[in-house]
Every structure is written in C-alpha cells, then in structure tokens.
Amino acid sequence: MAETKGYVATTKFLIASPTKVRPVAHVITRMPCSKAVAVLENMPQKGAKLIGKTLKSAMANALVANDKLDEDMLYIKEIRVDEGPRLKRIWCRARGRADQLLKRMCHITVTVAEKAGE
Known about the structure:
This protein has helices spanning 18-28, 33-41, 46-65, and strands at 3-14, 74-92, 98-115.
C-alpha cells in the first residue's frame, strides 16, 4: 500500500497533561478518520475532546487542499502529543508554607493521509 503525503494540524498550549492525553491518542492511531471521530466523541476523557478538535482541523485541511478527497478516504497517519511549557502557581499550605503547583501543557499534532489503492 503506497502512502501519499500527509496533511497536518497542530494545536498548541493546551492545559492538559501530556501523560493523560497520550493514551487517548494511542487508541485511535492508524484508524480511519470517520471512525476515530466517532470513538473520540464517546470517550469521557478531556484529552479526547482536544484531540477531536485537532483531528477535525486536519481533516478539513486535507479536504481543502485536495478536492478529490472524501472523509472516508482519510486515515490517521500519526498523532504526536508533545510537552509544552508549565504554568507555575502557588499552593497555600498549613503554617504559612507554600508549595508549587505545576499546570502542565501539551502540543497535539495530527497527521492524516489518504489511503492509496482503493
């Protein structure tokens, strides 16, 4: 099966831990896009909603770039969930002490491609 070039969409600076988003991304890798959107809509995790928005953007990029494509012809070639910067906040504790609270961010990159030979 020969693969064509991929169409990419990236969403950056999402306030969600990459370690919580990666298992969701792993579930839908190499899936047809239409099936992956249905799976993501029925998952309860916050990461599923974030990945779903990025996936729909990548599908739209592919359809705008190539008029001959259809949603059923696309599949997820690659999903990357990279770590972003961390927001550092103060968490007040007992006896006048303070802890540091790290709010982690992630960058999601979705690449969709056309299945050739169909």
